[in-house]
Specification:
heterodimer, A: 397 residues, alpha+beta, Butyryl-CoA Dehydrogenase, subunit A, domain 2, Butyryl-CoA Dehydrogenase, subunit A, domain 3, four-stranded mixed β-sheet, four-stranded antiparallel β-sheet, 14 helices, B: 372 residues, Butyryl-Coa Dehydrogenase, subunit A, domain 1, 11 helices, 10 strands, 17% strand, globular, binds flavin-adenine dinucleotide
Chain lengths: 397, 372
């Protein structure tokens, strides 16, 4: 066994690092570093730079215009991006709907949508969850009724991330209410400009506008916007969930957060000594360090298996549970490290254009981010649900 | 040994529970937070009518002589409703400092109107580089021509905007710690006001050669009084956190019973039942620690500080556990500003950032442990 990266992989890392140093606009990385919310134009500016470089769709094969990277390169790329404070690419187009269109979409759908995703022409959002269908996604109620060459869609989607910026929605709808739960679901691509769609903001506990609810009232969707067969929506949804999972541990983010925490805790003084020397605090940092080491190797094991042709299965549930817990713990320790300085809340600075003196600016986001990171164990399949998957599929319980 | 409340204490508890239920609903609380601070709020006037402003002070200074248990009852009720009044920061803490240090002239000027609800005060002890340490401060007070001159910066002063004056700690030339009354808008003061992430009005107070007459010096050696008042503050915060933990647990339990997934109430899933039980265990163990803290206020200083540090450290960990689980068990709903449990979660997590977090107090406990 050998855990080192090959010379080619190391050269690739150097190339990514060099590119980031040259191409990532400093005002954007500064916003990310300070934990300030990105505006739509910040996302787009960065994604256009990536697109020009040919690196936006890091998980796409060459035939569709991707760089054709394997899982190891993608892992390196993600890690370097997090270290450089690059914005995370908004995943709904590139990483979510695109693989579904590649796998289940018609040739026309592929020719139309994939280039628009690559060029950032479309901003996609994900319409899965509903007020009554969270963990029990298959319990969704949004109805699509066939009316000659259209579906008429009625219902409500919720928790739609960045839906306020999106012009396209991929949506699970119920086309057959009489079929068994999963079997009556279809996968639709919906233009957000269609009459009958209303988007309303939901403000989260950190004061951010990140999620929305979407009301669909007699929305007419052309039948050709269905991906796959009628009733095959659940297969598409499941494919999407298991397809791109090697990045799920958020390892690059965890590494960056731990680096930041250690530097912070060695600068902050507690009774004349660095906070990092305080036994109870240091102990938790050390434990986080060990967890990260283990997670990194577990992650590489899954990546190596994927590289060698295995499809990552329920292992990704393990990565998701541990990765989210670790990132939450790191955000907790960062908030704690700041002591009383973690108390003041400056929503205009964090979510808007306001300014702050440097000392306050450096610590402004810690508590808000801690609260925001609670989402990591809720979305993408809550951790309790992930554990049930492991119990069932790995342990056969 | 007796854990029972007296008849008066039971009445106090019932009155407060009713008051909080009637007057501090989520909507009312939002309106109170949005209102500009213009003198005493209607709720503060009710507090005055109920005797709450006199309750925690000794009879010598015109109070009702309430003890740690009385204060616990009040704080717990305020925590249950997340009542946005600066009862602790604007009344109890500065009031106790005055009671311990002020001469009769100073009492008449600052303490009597405080108890009568005519003004509120603030207690400015924290500094950026000192973190939670009340003694390691850099603000300086020097005497010149019989006047005092103060220079320094106080961080995250609660209730700063509404306060008629702040009680400010400062280092004297002889290295002892002094305590001063700095009236709001005194020449040389400037403030940066904000809210904390758990909705408390606060601010930074900068003192640039602020000149004060001798009558504004409360003490030239305030360390012991400071320790006593910080202990009181910590015990009171624990009690307040118990109220908030109770409410976070109740709201989560109600949600688990009402929310259905997979055709069943969430409360029927064993994984969640056990989690809910863990929350309940944390609450009950913390309640015991808060009682221990409330009944330790009159012990000799080192014993008092040992027990109260233990309680604050313990409650800090529990408060966070309960807050995190309350959000988790509410799913995405628990992440929204609109969901009331999120406000409790924020309060409970940030509890650790007031008057020393668990690490800070664990250190105190472990120091005293080896000394014992
Ligand atoms: C910030 C954020 C962004 C999101 N973005 C999107 C998006 O863009 N598009 C989209 O479609 N959705 C999105 N979601 C929704 C997300 O997928 C759901 O929140 C998630 O599926 C959980 O559903 P729920 O919130 O309804 O919780 P519930 O399903 O009501 O669950 C509540 C709690 O009960 C637990 N639980 C439920 N069932 C069981 C069981 N059988 N056994 C044990 N425990 C159980 C859960 O784990 C959870 O802790 C987002 C959510 C968040 C928080």
């Amino acid at each position: 066994m050998n855990l080192t990266f090959s010379p080619e992989e190391q050269a690739f890392r150097a190339e990514v690092r060099h590119f980031l140093a040259e191409a990532l606009p400093s005002d954007i990385s500064e916003r990310v570093r300070l934990g300030r919310h990105l505006r739509a134009e910040d996302h787009l500016r960065w994604q256009n730079i990536l697109s020009e470089q040919g690196w936006l769709a890091s998980n796409w094969p060459k035939e569709h215009g991707g760089p054709g990277w394997g899982p190891v390169q993608r892992h390196i790329f993600d890690e370097e991006c997090a270290a450089a404070h690059a914005p995370t690419v908004v995943p709904f187009g590139v990483n979510m709907v695109a693989p579904v269109i590649m796998k289940f979409g018609s040739a026309e759908q592929q020719q139309y949508y994939l280039p628009r995703i690559l060029s950032n022409q479309d901003w996609w959002c994900q319409g899965y969850s509903e007020p009554g269908a969270g963990s029990d996604l298959a319990g969704l109620n949004t109805r699509a009724v066939r009316d000659s060459d259209h579906y008429v869609v009625n219902g409500q989607k919720t928790w739609t991330t960045l839906g306020q910026h999106a012009n396209m929605l991929f949506c699970l709808v119920r086309t057959d209410p009489d079929a068994k739960k999963q079997a009556g679901i279809s996968f639709l691509l919906i233009d957000m400009q269609t009459p009958g769609i209303t988007v309303r903001p939901i403000i989260t506990l950190d004061g951010a506008h990140e999620v929305n609810e979407i009301f669909l009232d007699n929305v007419r969707v052309p039948v050709e916007n269905r991906v796959g067969e009628e009733g095959q929506g659940w297969t598409c949804a499941k494919f999407l969930l298991t397809h791109e999972r090697t990045g799920i541990a958020g390892l690059g983010h965890a590494k960056q957060a731990l680096r930041h925490l250690k530097s912070l805790a060695s600068r902050i003084e507690h009774r004349g000594k660095p906070l990092l020397a305080l036994p109870s605090f240091r102990h938790r940092v050390v434990k986080a360090e060990l967890e990260l080491m283990a997670l990194e190797v577990t992650n590489l094991r899954v990546i190596a298996a994927a590289r060698d042709g295995g499809a990552p299965g329920a292992e990704s549930s393990l990565l998701k549970v541990r990765g989210s817990e670790l990132r939450q713990e790191l955000s907790e320790l960062t908030r704690r490290a700041l002591g009383p300085a973690a108390l003041p809340f400056f929503p205009d600075f964090l979510h808007g254009e306001g300014s702050l003196d440097d000392e306050r600016a450096q610590s402004a986001a810690a508590s808000a981010q801690y609260f925001n990171r609670r989402k990591l164990s809720i979305y993408g399949g809550a951790n309790e649900i992930q554990k049930s998957i492991v119990a069932k599929t790995i342990l056969n319980m | 040994m007796d854990f029972a409340l007296t008849d008066e204490q039971r009445m106090l508890e019932e009155t407060l529970t009713r008051l909080v239920t009637d007057q501090v609903s989520p909507e009312q609380r939002r309106a109170m937070l949005a209102a500009a601070p213009e003198g005493a709020s209607p709720l503060w006037r009710t507090f005055a009518e109920l005797g709450l402003l006199h309750m925690p002070f000794s009879e010598d200074v015109g109070g009702l002589g309430g003890d740690g248990t009385d204060l616990m009852i009040i704080m717990q009720a305020l925590g249950r409703g997340l009542v946005p009044e600066a009862y602790l920061a604007g009344l109890v803490l500065p009031g106790q400092l005055l009671a311990l240090t002020a001469n009769s002239g100073q009492q008449t000027e600052w303490l009597t109107p405080l108890l009568e609800g005519e003004h509120q005060l603030a207690f400015a002890w924290q500094e950026h580089n000192a973190r939670y340490d009340a003694l390691a401060i850099a603000t300086q007070a020097t005497q010149q021509d019989g006047q005092w001159q103060l220079t320094g910066k106080k961080d995250v002063v609660l209730n700063l905007e509404a306060a008629a004056a702040s009680l400010v700690t400062a280092r004297l030339d002889n290295a002892k710690l002094g305590l001063f009354i700095v009236p709001a808008n005194a020449p040389g003061t400037s403030t940066h006001l904000y809210r904390t992430i758990d909705d408390q009005p606060a601010g930074d107070l900068t003192l640039d050669n602020v000149t004060l007459p001798p009558a504004n010096c409360l003490s030239e050696d305030v360390s012991d009084a400071l320790a006593e008042v910080l202990a009181l503050g910590r015990a009171a915060l624990c009690a307040q956190a118990i109220g908030a933990m109770e409410e976070a647990c109740d709201q989560t339990l109600a949600y688990l019973k009402e929310r259905k997934q997979f055709g069943l109430p969430l409360s029927t899933f064993q994984a969640l039942q056990h989690r809910m039980v863990d929350m309940h265990l944390h609450l009950e163990q913390s309640r015991s620690m808060a009682i221990l803290a409330a009944t330790s206020l009159t012990l000799p200083a080192s014993e008092r500080d040992y027990k109260i540090a233990a309680a604050k450290a313990y409650c800090g960990e529990s408060a966070r556990f309960i807050a995190e689980q309350a959000i988790q068990l509410h799913g995405a709903m628990g992440m929204t500003e609109e969901c009331y449990v999120a406000s409790y979660a924020k309060h409970l997590v940030m509890f650790d950032h007031y008057f020393g977090d668990s690490d800070y107090h664990l250190e105190t406990v472990s120091e005293l442990l080896t000394a014992a």
